[in-house]
Records
---
Amino acid sequence: MSSILVLNGPNLNLLGQRQPEVYGTTTLADVQAACEAHGKNIGYDVAFSQTNFEGGLVEAIHAARGTHDGIVINAGAYTHTSIAIMDAVFSTQVPTVEVHLSNIHAREDFRHTSYLARAAIGQIAGFGLTSYLLGMDALKAHLA
Ligand code: DQA
């Protein structure tokens, strides 16, 4: 079976308690369960992980090469700051879809910039947990 890595960045471990007015009450465990169930439906194994560390995200992207067919990533705030994560995607060439729970383009100006978007196939933002599932569908369509 084919495999997708769903990677989560900083503060997403606090989903459900963190700014519920922005991110809702869905927990990261809920996101994981939904991604795993959706993976079964579309024929992909799902590996799911979260780290609060920029270097942890870089290493997970490196390790995905040859292990997973693609990555769905919510890099959290590192989206807007991290050249290292963008470079990791460029360097490994693992097909990567950027996702966000919130509509980053409707929020503060500093969230409108995504370094990661330069390396990603595309970006899906604003649909809550569904952004992840749409990201998986988009990755599958890209890989087909
Ligand atoms: C986020 C949006 C980012 O701007 C923010 O820093 C996050 C979450 C989202 O999923 O909406 O941590 O990536």
---
Amino acid sequence: MTIQVAVNGYGTIGKRVADAVTLQPDMELVGVAKTSPNHEAELAVENGYPLYAAIEERIELFEDAGIELAGTVDELVDAADVVVDACPSGIGEENKSLYEEYDTPALYQGGEDADMVDVSFNARSNFADAEGADHVRVVSCNTTGLSRLLAPLQEEYGVEKARITLVRRGGDPAQSGRGPINDILPNPVTLPSHHGPDVNTIFPDLSIDTLGLKVPATLMHTHSVNVTLETTPDASEVADLLREQSRTFMIQADSGIDGAGALKEYAQDRDRPRADIWENCIWEESISMEGDDLYLFQAIHQESDVVPENVDAIRAVLGEADAQESIDRTNEAMGVGF
Ligand code: NAD
């Protein structure tokens, strides 16, 4: 069966998911829904993606802009086997009744509340939990990055306690209204930041404390990681384990990649679409063991690490593959793994 996929909300995440879906051998993009006829609507048309009006009263705006519509979002949702909702935080919840009306399983993004869905999802960590679910939340960029890291550590060594400081980009490159412009903000100033509880939606029993900061950057997030393990492997064993994971990029000491800027340059040089980096980028040199405490730094590309996860979640809800098959298929089709 070719899975018919709809994407509702064609912004930063939605346009990337739409592109990734078109690359999958077992999926077809039915179309994308948009609220306004902006440059991204033009892009959808240029890509040959059928474009649907997300809000009926706005059809005229598309007509005025000379952009042809294939129909309304209701028709799109009706025609799809699964819908990926990539609307701004909170709008997904408003759309839930629409998906229920057409009995179309829906994937939401990390900005939605965990309680509005049946299951929160990360392919490496809990793929099977999403099978047959109607409402699934693909966790945020940071939670995705942490889940991918913690899953193998927990399986291999056991995790007694994770302590993570997240140095977060102030906004995405196109978010001109976000900040700070010239500041370093403890954000939130209270503990824990929402990331720890969010990781617990994937690993309910994990002991984790998280602290967040926001800095004047748009490129990526950086995590300073300390995990107390239940056993004491060598740092080199941990490095081997993380290297074996299919969605990690181990940054070699002699690569000259010293931060997010160089990582983005690397992705650009390797012709990644939009200079996306779907993998957790882990500085191999930073991996250290002090007694049973593991330390490392990793960078996370906020705009793209959730994209392969959305593709896997599509197969998971429909029971179309198991975790390994799906991850392999997604990676191969997108070219995940440097
Ligand atoms: P975005 O603003 O870039 O894109 C959202 C798109 O949805 C926009 O094109 C907007 O016009 C459209 N939209 C608004 N209302 C709509 C409606 N009613 N119907 C259809 N479309 C509508 O936002 P984004 O960054 O792609 O974020 C989407 C979700 O993904 C959020 O939950 C966010 O928390 C999550 N997320 C974002 C990032 C990131 O770094 N950008 C990373 C991971 C997860």
